[in-house]
Amino acid sequence: MTIPILICDDSGVARKQMAKSLPAGWDVEVNFAANGQEAIDMIHQGLGDVLFLDLNMPVMDGYQTLEVISKEELPTVVIVVSGDIQPDAKKRVIGLGAFDFIKKPINSDELTAILQKTGLYAETDEPAQAAAPAVDRAASHQGSISMFDAFQEVANVAMGQAADLLARLLDVFVLLPIPRVNLLEISELQMALQATEDNDTYSGVCQGFIGSGIAGEAFLLFHDSSFKDMAKLMRYDGKLNELVELELLMDVSSVLIGACIKGIAEQLDIAFSQGHPVVLGQHVNVGDLLSNNNWRWTKTLAIEICYSIENYNINCDLLLLFTEDSLPVFRDKVAYLI
Hints:
With 338 residues, the chain is of the alpha/beta class. It has helices at residues 12-21, 36-44, 62-72, 87-95, 108-118, 131-140, 147-170, 186-195, 227-233, 242-268, 286-291, 327-334; strands at residues 3-8, 28-33, 50-53, 77-82, 100-103, 174-175, 180-185, 202-211, 214-223, 273-274, 278-284, 299-309, 315-323. Strand 4 (77-82), helix 4 (87-95) and strand 5 (100-103) form a beta-alpha-beta unit. It comes from Hahella chejuensis (strain KCTC 2396).
């Protein structure tokens, strides 16, 4: 009997990759949702006996979706598929009723093993002939997927890997956003930063990276109001001063920049060499941190990730800027996702 399954993810790239990862012999009808609210509506329509659920989405995220499914006792088996691989993420979704958790990028063998545990799929010597074409048609019905969708999904996975490292280091839960990806003129970037200035001051670090025809700079902009709680998490009991704050800044930037750049490199199957970190400034307005940078290009692919830590006043922005010359190579490297 054909099983209706539902793939819920705000990324068209992720939905397509999830559909292509399904076992070839599984007799299914594949449906798609872009957020949790759409998924709930489709489950009510009988279109999701199995739900593959992302966590970080607009409108209704994965955690909220699981809460609704539990409250309404909806008839669906939920398998969370996410780039948020923090230990607490898996614990939380299992606690909310998910059957299992699988990390992005998806490992097909791991997915098959989980599906076998549900009892809704069993490998056979003679796979169903119509199943694979049906899955392929469903994936193709996602329509055209832009390069920016692919860039965003690569950033999403790398963001989760960096958050996992920070969460394990500090024994916290890192709140993750949806990465923002834009192609900007450098002048537009500077104007955008000035427009977002608030009453807080920032301290910043910059680190360059290069490899296989792709180059750029990573900026960590740390809210100065976050130093007190960060010192507490790092178990520093002394008086805060600029030297201590600089040490905390360098520690956090090493984790987030290093892990995020490594996560992107692994997905592109390349290796980046990283330069020495450079302190941009301490206790200044966000626009001033980047105003003195000698830009060597006119356009940039900008990826912005805003990290925060649950139950602590800790916020920092990771800004990855790829050079204009890197874009053709970057496009070629992510073409497999489209």
